[in-house]
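Final report, results section. Input specification for complex C-07:
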Amino acid sequence: MKLTRTASFLALLLPLFFLGSCVKDTCRKTITMKMPVFRSLTEVRNGMRSGVAQPVRHPGKIYTRGGYLFLNEVDKGIHVIDNSNPANPQKLAFIPIPGNVDLAVKGQYLYADSYADLVVFDLGNLADIRPVRFVDNVFPFRSNYYFGNTTNPDSMMVVVDYTLRDTVVDCDSYGGPEFFDRGGAMPMSGPGGVLNTAGGGGGGTGGSMARFAITGDHLYTVSTYSLSTFSISNPAQPQRLGERQLGGWNIETIFPFRDKLFIGSANGMMIYDISVPTNPSFISSFAHVTACDPVIADDRNAFVTLRTGTACRGVNDQLDVLDITNLSQPTPVRTYALTNPHGLAKDGDLLFICDGRDGLRVYNAAQPSALVPLQHITGIDTYDAIALGGTLLVVAKDGLYQYSYNSGGNLVRLSRIAIEN
Amino acid sequence: MKRQLLILLLSGATLGAGAQGARSGPRFRSINSAGLTVGSYDTPIQFQTVNGLQWDGWYAGIGIAYDPYRIRTVPYFLDLRRRVGPAKLPFFLYADAGSQLVLAGTNKDGANHRWNGKLYFDAGVGYTVALKGRNAIELALGYSRKAVGATVTEPTFCPGGNCPDNVYRLDHTLRRVMIRAGWSF
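Structure output:
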């Protein structure tokens, strides 16, 4: 009797299997829309004058010159910081430069990109920094206002800011259903940066993530696919000498050392000879797996970090050391596993590696095939560093740190400029 | 029609409560079941265990489940049941409500997901097949809903830059019909 009732109950349930089509899953996606704020190119250029110091919110690359730091605020401009006392850096001014991500300094002139343009600033009077020259559309990979034959700066509109607005949309109508039920995925990589001590002559020091490099009377810049050469023999009037296509290497960084350029790309490292500065010539390349790869070098070795989890789609977290005594044939020396390495810097035998969320690592690199760990500073999420003969600058997620260090690699914190949100 | 069905069920509950006869004290009861989660996406199997106290026609317990439907979660919830109908037709009503832990991965195509398990809800009607001693088979049919949120962070591709990530929020509401069979003791 019981079984009969149970069977009847189960029979009643059978049609319910089809109820699945009666119930629907929903997904709402809340997006913060960035609505661009436009100004004419004329207004933008008139506004590129130093003003009062601003909070640091999204720091990018750093350049040092004498006792000053020039810190990029991504796509916004450049902070000018008096660092004559690293224990007490003082923000002096902010130069608004929409679309700025790269910078370099020679003498009293600052070179900065503003979207597709190169802008030269006179640093002669830090209280009143002004642009002295604009070189139009020399970085076309970031061009967003040079359309057609338009040349009138009053009618060319530049994005100077964004306003935020939350918008709720159906997931299916915007970017797919966004469902998944398992872990593991293609890691991507994000931007990072490093500064190094071996920066070329003629000016200050940039980082291993820099895309601008100055050696002597020449400024070299890289786009994602090309290397451009500018003459700055007249520093206030840069002249573009040429552009060399570098192929589909997805170029990221440029590092000058003596008469060589080390170019980091998502696919490997390239070495160019600039003994004839106006005509960089290819020497060799070293391919690696796809990843972001800041690179620095000395006379014997190149140090390349590869990382996961960023926009470069890397799958390895490691430091590759290459032997470059024969520049035409770089050979791997050793690979070191790291947590999430970003930028790196070197001073003598000391090697500083920003290991992302795992902090800052200091090694004795006298024997590149057997790096000796000296110190590991945790608790900061690092991505950019520069070593300046006893003072180490570190850009981290929560601020710009400065440490003093000795030949034994012992770091002592001097100061921190906090990031404000 | 829905209102009539509800009135019928509530009437049954009242009648059932009156038909319980002799009262007894609370006793421990464990209900362990597996069921099909029938939704618009697929029909995976959910496992759950509920443990609590039976007192006359009422049962209250706490439960935990493994729910792989679309986004893998572990719901944890309060379970309330009420026997309804005459003793010869031992139906019961049940309702579960709680929250959940999300087991889904945190990375997909480079986007990082920070999950937030929200409301888990399941309610329906069941039927008890008594076996020897205190053992019984419990069959149930219900409607289940689970809500899961995620804050997604996607890196922005800008070589050499330090671009802020792209961040957005997802709110999933997943609705299913539950068909469950279990053993209680």
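The first strand of chain B starts at residue 27 and ends at 38. Confidence is low (pLDDT under 50) at residues 1-22 of chain B. This concludes the modelling results for the funded period.
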